[in-house]
Specification:
- The protein contains eight helices and no strands.
- It is mainly α.
- The chain is globular.
- It has one domain.
Length: 244
């Protein structure tokens, strides 16, 4: 007869290997695909230029930090925590996010609607993985990489959805951006209330700063609103920083 404990350990180890493959594929998918500058305006019935809600291009460099964090998380999990039940609980939702992420730029270049749907699935996977990760004690190896991923995807998901809605409706880019900004802030504050992770706040505030930079020259009200949102998110995170 087979030993159930061994079978469980083997299953968890295979999932750990899958996450390593997913992390590497996620990073490689970005490196092997031409740079993504946003949805093609011609892909919409109502062509739409980048919205005020879209962060400045430099802000997307955070993906380099996220990829490094996810790769380190994956290898540490395989080498040191391959059969750990706490780590194992994060693996399927994280793997789903990574696999979709590996193909996401290609999807976005073909279908903004499908890209919008899939980025929300990525966000759901990242949030589920982060929630499971909080049962583990490793802050830097586990909490920070997943929190950065979830924080950035929160902002990116609302940018994608807002752009798609504006492109397929009569909603103006300005009004759409205001709605998207408020919705993104509400989402981030709800997540931070449930899971007060500084890494999540850092990634989301980074996106807000990128939005501020993209509106420096011609949209002072939106710049101020994004800045106020960044202050609010940072303030909500202070208690977690004091406990750290």
């Amino acid at each position: 007869m087979t030993d159930p404990a061994n079978d469980t350990g083997d299953t968890r180890r295979m999932k750990a290997i899958a996450v390593v493959c997913g992390a590497l594929a996620f990073a490689a998918g970005s490196l092997m695909t031409p740079g993504f500058d946003g949805y093609d305006p011609a892909a919409f019935p109502n062509p739409v230029a980048p919205l005020p809600l879209t962060p400045a291009g430099y802000a997307f460099s955070i993906w380099g930090v996220i990829f490094i964090g996810l790769i380190l998380n994956a290898f540490y999990g395989l080498i040191k925590r391959d059969t750990d039940p706490g780590w194992d609980a994060t693996r399927w939702p994280l793997f789903v996010t990574q696999v979709i992420g590996a193909a996401w730029i290609g999807i976005a270049q073909v279908s903004p609607v499908m890209a919008t749907i899939t980025i929300w699935i990525m966000l759901a996977g990242a949030l589920l993985a982060l929630r499971a990760a909080l049962r583990t004690p490793e802050t830097w190896w586990m909490h920070v990489p997943l929190a950065l991923l979830a924080g950035w995807l929160t902002a990116a998901s609302w940018v994608a959805l807002t752009t798609t809605v504006v492109g397929y409706s009569a909603l103006s880019p300005a009004i759409g951006s205001w709605i998207g900004l408020v919705a993104a802030l509400i989402t981030s504050l709800a997540v931070l209330r449930a899971m007060p992770q500084p890494g999540y706040a850092v990634a989301f505030v980074w996106a807000l700063i990128g939005i501020m930079v993209s509106n420096l020259s011609d949209n002072l009200p939106f710049l101020v609103a994004a800045g106020a949102g960044a202050v609010l998110v940072a303030a909500m995170t202070l208690p977690a920083l004091r406990r750290a």
